[in-house]
């Protein structure tokens, strides 16, 4: 199993980023997937989930600002983040939904998102 997250960076408050996650090593199309984040000094926090059919759900802080999606033909997971806030600063990970917020050994390195002026 391999997850490769990308698309993070430094952005000003109110800005946007689109995160991507390339997945390999399992039958991606059959699995619900999550985006999870970890801010400095804090626990892992669920951001959004996408079921195998593409239906998405969000943490309260992400509602109306973030959009999660997937492309099962490319084994890709996406997170469009708009109106970013300093409190969104974190490392963002993708993973199987069944992992929840427990980091598993096969998780990737994540992608750093920093929101600052």
Got a strand count?
Answer: 10
Order of helices and strands: EEEEEEEEEE
The class by helix and strand makeup works out as mainly beta
| Shape summary | globular
Given the structure, what is the number of helices? 0
Q: Which spans of ≥5 residues are poorly predicted at pLDDT below 50?
A: none
Helix content: under 10%
Instruction: Characterize the largest beta sheet: strand count, sense, and whether it forms a barrel.
Output: 6 strands, mixed
What is the arithmetic mean of pLDDT?
A: 97
Proportion of residues in extended strands = over 45%
Radius of gyration computed on alpha carbons = 13 Å
Strand order of the largest sheet: 2-10-9-4-5-6
Give the end-to-end Cα distance, rounded to a whole number of Å.
Answer: 37 Å
Structure, explained:
Helices cover 0% and strands 48% of the residues. The chain is globular. The termini are far apart. The mean pLDDT is 97. The chain contains no helices and ten strands. The strands form two sheets. The protein has a six-stranded mixed beta sheet, with no helix packed on it. It has 117 residues and is mainly beta.
Set down the secondary structure blueprint.
Elements: E1 2-6, E2 9-11, E3 17-24, E4 33-38, E5 44-50, E6 56-58, E7 66-71, E8 76-81, E9 90-96, E10 111-115
Parallel strand pairs: 2-10
Antiparallel strand pairs: 1-3, 3-8, 4-5, 4-9, 5-6, 7-8, 9-10
Throw out a few tags for this protein.
117 residues, 6-stranded mixed β-sheet, 0% helix, 48% strand
Short description:
With 117 residues, this protein is mainly β. 0% of the residues lie in helices and 48% in strands.
């Amino acid at each position: 199993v391999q997850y490769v997250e990308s698309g993070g960076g430094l952005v000003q408050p109110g800005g946007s980023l689109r995160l991507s996650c390339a997945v390999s090593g399992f039958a991606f199309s059959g699995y619900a997937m999550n985006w999870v984040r970890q801010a400095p000094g804090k626990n892992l926090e669920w951001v959004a989930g996408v079921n195998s059919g593409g239906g998405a759900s969000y943490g309260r802080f992400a509602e109306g600002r973030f959009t999660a999606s997937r492309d099962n033909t490319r084994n890709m997971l996406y997170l469009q983040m708009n109106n970013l806030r300093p409190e969104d600063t974190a490392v963002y990970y993708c993973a199987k939904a069944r992992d929840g917020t427990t980091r598993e050994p096969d998780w990737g390195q994540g992608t750093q998102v920093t929101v600052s002026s």
